[in-house]
Amino acid sequence: xxxxxxxxxxxxxxxxxxxxxxxxxxxxxxxxxxxxxxxxxxxxxxxxxxxxxxxxxxxxxxxxxxxxxxxxxxxxxxxxxxxxxxxxxxxxxxxxxxxxxxxxxxxxxxxxxxxxxxxxxxxxxxxxxxxxxxxxxxxxxxxxxxxxxxxxxxxxxxxxxxxxxxxxxxxxxxxxxxxxxxxxxxxxxxxxxxxxxxxxxxxxxxxxxxxxxxxxxxxxxxxxxxxxxxxxxxxxxxxxxxxxxxxxxxxxxxxxxxxxxxxxxxxxxxxxxxxxxxxxxxxxxxxxxxxxxxxxxxxxxxxxxxxxxxxxxxxxxxxxxxxxxxxxxxxxxxxxxxxxxxxxxxxxxxxxxxxxxxxxxxxxxxxxxxxxxxxxxxxxxxxxxxxxxxxxxxxxxxxxxxxxxxxxxxxxxxxxxxxxxxxxxxxxxxxxxxxxxxxxxxxxxxxxxxxxxxxxxxxxxxxxxxxxxxxxxxxxxxxxxxxxxxxxxxxxxxxxxxxxxxxxxxxxxxxxxxxxxxxxxxxxxxxxxxxxxxxxxx
Length: 538
Known about the structure:
Elements: H1 20-31, H2 39-54, E1 58-64, E2 70-77, E3 86-88, E4 98-102, H3 110-117, E5 122-130, E6 133-142, H4 148-177, H5 182-188, H6 190-195, E7 199-204, E8 209-212, H7 214-220, H8 224-227, H9 242-250, E9 256-264, E10 270-281, E11 287-296, H10 297-344, H11 352-376, E12 384-387, H12 388-406, E13 408-413, E14 420-423, H13 425-442, E15 448-457, E16 465-471, H14 479-482, H15 500-510, E17 514-519, E18 524-531
Parallel strand pairs: 13-15
Antiparallel strand pairs: 1-2, 1-6, 2-3, 4-5, 5-6, 7-8, 7-11, 9-10, 10-11, 12-14, 15-16, 16-18, 17-18
């Protein structure tokens, strides 16, 4: 049974509002893990914190066996051996990110059988992935049915964090159990090394670079060919204590933590990183080289923001349910009643103006309610090829009456040839309606020019993109608002809901795109990019 089939109305709220601060504190602790401790101890501690964060009773981690024929239990918080020592690939036979089984349903896998036998009310299973590969599984269960959508969202957060930790475990196990020479051993684990989120640099006994992974190239800005056989001191520029760490690793110390240091990328940009150095020995315990792991500390901050966003969305989900059943219908009834009374009232009647204000208030409440529901509801796109030139040309035609009324000139800069993306017509319409409406509001008092430019961009990413820029000639925005523009309930408009741009960013992300904003002395530019769709694309 898939998570999407869960009836959210029957779920119970497991975590009270007063626990939110405590949970956020736990999340912060989860994100601040480093590998000063034994990896097994770290996994146990991680599970304890993850258990509290997710609001479950039982947790178990499985890692993929080398033969790719199943999974072996690595660590667990359980009662009476609630989870088997190993499971087969049948546990992966589900769509989506989360698989849900509930008591009373027919168990189809070994984990579900164990859950039924131990009296669990529910069992959730999530893949631990990196790239296209499956590193392992995490299984979570409980003896009381709680808020399963919220638990599922939090388990997704835990899965993402755990995947990175599991990669480190695999790397350390590789270092402890290698039986071949350095080159051959590294080749065996090349997929793990290349897919890990940490930058990996391998140097020989002379501290010359032998190998780096793709993450290291991305973080540092060098290609492997550029730095192959270069001294590590010429690559990790600005790393205080680097040579001391290398000497310690050469002396055979299993793992040396450099902690947080300041590094410089190839272009000179400084960034904070956490560095570990490990000696690489052959089967005779003779030193072959040093493995260096570099974690970009900015990623931890990004994860914290993602977690806060999930918490906010979960809270909005509960609020949306209340709005849908307790607020939306009464507001509609009041609004219809006010409109009816307006039709009976002459403009010179003393009651006309109060009724007009009431109608305006009801309209704003309706808009807020629909915005909250739109922002909180999960959305599944209806994917199909869409010509963005035609899509935006049609939209501009609908907006011309308002532009004329506000003295706004439209300036479409569209290519002659079609530029196609794979998307959802309804979602794209909402995205660009919000952006055009935002631009029109900025120029409402003074008039101005709205420019929409569509072009193919081959520079922004490795694959071709369709870039759509929406620019206005309004007053622009301050740096303070630039940082808040996509946050929910943040607005400079007196009558705005503060959800328009938050919804826009959410929809852009769902369609695998990106959005950014720039402000100038005159006007703002919102730039949206989507992958270019070509007939040969899968």
